[in-house]
Amino acid sequence: MNKTVIENFARFNSSLLYLPTFLLLAILSFLCSRNALSNEAYVNCQKELFLFMNSELAEYPRTLYNLTQLGDALIILSFLTIFIIYAPKMWESLITASIVSAILVGVLKPLFGIQRPAAAFGPENLTIIGRKLMGSNSFPSGHSVTVFTVLTVVLIAFMPKKIKYQIVWSCSIFLFGIILILTRIGVGAHHPIDITVGAIVGYASAIIGIAINKKYNIWGWIGNKKFYPVFILLFFACSIVMIFKIFEANLVIFYFALLSLLISLFVITNLYVKK
């Protein structure tokens, strides 16, 4: 499995950054054409679309609230912990890409200061599922960035060789990602352009992360068994955090994430003991 990842990353071309660059310029052109570069104009130009999508998606509150948790790095990465053992090369790029995405989100959110939907339209005018977010840090959607950062790395890492399977694999990953980021509208946390730009930034973060790791190999120690105790402690700590999350909000997704962590913890501990 790790061999497949290595081969795919070896064929990787950073020209894939052309697509997100083009899409971001297209969105900027759209906003300019609507004179929607100010905070108020930005939220108002997509108000009707947001309220329609929020109303329609909110028909499935429990499903939305579970799926939207996958935008939390701890949750989505919990499902991939087993690949630290079987495909450490993927995790090397995943860590770098996650750092890139965290930096971009940390810069962009305060830079633009866009109001959340509840702050812009009033919480009484939309459906809010879960925590009510009222700040001015809506753009871009951090959850969407996280989702597409992780899914893009997974997409490239495990890309099949045959074209027909590549199409199916790519469409499946992107469809799953779109479903996940749409939940941010359904729970009343983000505007449509927030999640769109978030997805693009996440995709770009993954490409940049893979390119950096391909050149510098920063995390090459991850596949070394002598460092397994680090991951054993990390998986154990994350499992404890997940248990607290279950007590706080009894969601099915947390049980699956915990199960994934415990399986990874068992496998990596067993391999280290037998070393």
From TrEMBL:
<dbReference type="Pfam" id="PF01569">
    <property type="entry name" value="PAP2"/>
</dbReference>
<keyword id="KW-0812">Transmembrane</keyword>
<dbReference type="InterPro" id="IPR000326">
    <property type="entry name" value="PAP2/HPO"/>
</dbReference>
<keyword id="KW-0472">Membrane</keyword>
<keyword id="KW-1133">Transmembrane helix</keyword>
<feature type="transmembrane region" description="Helical">
    <location>
        <begin position="253"/>
        <end position="273"/>
    </location>
</feature>
<feature type="transmembrane region" description="Helical">
    <location>
        <begin position="94"/>
        <end position="112"/>
    </location>
</feature>
<feature type="domain" description="Phosphatidic acid phosphatase type 2/haloperoxidase">
    <location>
        <begin position="93"/>
        <end position="210"/>
    </location>
</feature>
<feature type="transmembrane region" description="Helical">
    <location>
        <begin position="69"/>
        <end position="87"/>
    </location>
</feature>
<feature type="transmembrane region" description="Helical">
    <location>
        <begin position="193"/>
        <end position="212"/>
    </location>
</feature>
<dbReference type="InterPro" id="IPR036938">
    <property type="entry name" value="PAP2/HPO_sf"/>
</dbReference>
<feature type="transmembrane region" description="Helical">
    <location>
        <begin position="141"/>
        <end position="160"/>
    </location>
</feature>
<protein>
    <submittedName>
        <fullName>Phosphatase PAP2 family protein</fullName>
    </submittedName>
</protein>
<feature type="transmembrane region" description="Helical">
    <location>
        <begin position="227"/>
        <end position="247"/>
    </location>
</feature>
<feature type="transmembrane region" description="Helical">
    <location>
        <begin position="167"/>
        <end position="187"/>
    </location>
</feature>
